[in-house]
Amino acid sequence: MMRRFSTPLVLFVCLFLLAPHPGAQTPFRILVTNDDGIRAPGIVAVAQALTALGEVTVVAPSENQSAKGHALAIADPVYADKVQFPGGLTAFSLTATPATCVKLALGALLPQKPDLVVSGINRDQNLGMVAYISGTVAGAREAALQGIPAIAVSLLLGRTGELDYGPAAHYTLQIATAVKERGLEPGTFLNVNVPAGPAEAIKGIRVTTQSALAGTETFIEHARPPMGRRYFWNTYDGPHGGAEGDDVWAVYQGYVAVTPLRVGEFDRKTYEAWKGILK
Ligand code: MN
Q: Which residues of the chain have pLDDT under 50?
């Protein structure tokens, strides 16, 4: 014998199925990128740490793209390969810069926009004005330009050059958790620099100003140029010293420096001064 369902019961079941389920919340989605390339140890450490906070997807350059700043791939094809990543995370390797990785992830690869973009953990500092050169910072800036909260993370090189990304990954998780809870002003992002050395040596976190220092570049010319062409090698030393309260000062005092940055370089003072001069 056939059972008949009453109309109110069918309606109730349909409404229940359509209603948002308290137990099935949408995950907090995190996009992770970097500029050292998808095989760098820093991105593995941070991607795995962030799984404690949400659903992590990795979209990163196939090769090292350090110091490429906000460069974009515009005249070359971008190959996107799905790759194996530690922890079984979804990961794409792109033949592109970090800024293009974020653009392409947001515009074409990801089924949904992420709630947070984390770029790093970079091998070596991105302090002060170095933020302009950094591909790591550009990955976060690109997200901020698109209205998504973002964090760039860099770990200073110690004396030995051997890096333990564990403490930096731990602090990134702490900072990312705060961003998840509080959000960030649209158009802003955080530039994080972590001191070298073991976790015990790190004194904690300081929110800092951005140093005006950019480091020192020395171009050394090779004495016997091959085939008669002069050539130079850039040797670089990052910013040191700084002023109390800024990012350079903080990391060399042993603190994790968290510097809020804003996209846009418009200067109102110069605008006011010059709008009467040039017309
Ligand atoms: Mn790098």
A: 1
CA distance 48 to 163: 17
What is the 6 CA–ligand 1 centroid distance (Å)?
65
Query: How many whole angstroms separate alpha carbon 208 and alpha carbon 210?
Result: 7
Q: What is the pLDDT of residue 18?
A: 59
Cis peptide before 74 (omega within 30 of 0): no
- Distance from the CA of 108 to the center of ligand 1, in angstroms? 25
- Determine if the pTM surpasses 0.70: yes
Task: Tell me the three-class secondary structure of 242-279, residue by residue.
Answer: CCCCEHHHHHHCCEEEEEEEECCCCCHHHHHHHCCCCC
Report the pLDDT value the prediction gives residue 15, as an integer from 0 to 100: 58
Tell me if 192 sits within 8 A of 175, measured CB to CB: yes
CB within 8 Å of 100: residues ≥ 6 apart: 71, 72, 73, 78, 94
Distance from CA of residue 108 to its chain's centroid? 19
* pLDDT value at residue 160: 77
Tell me the CA–centroid distance for residue 10 and ligand 1, in Å: 58
Cβ-Cβ contacts under 8 Å for 159 (sequence gap 6 or more): 196
Whole-number Å distance, alpha carbon 115 to ligand 1 midpoint, is 24
Residue pointed to by tokens 């510097």: 259
pLDDT of residue 92: 98
Q: How far, in Å, is the centroid of ligand 1 from the Cα of 34?
A: 7
Between β-strands 150-155 and 116-123, what pairing exists: parallel, antiparallel or unpaired? parallel
Name residue 60's beta-bridge partners: 93
Query: How far does residue 63's CA lie from ligand 1's centre (Å)?
Result: 10
Res 141: pLDDT: 98
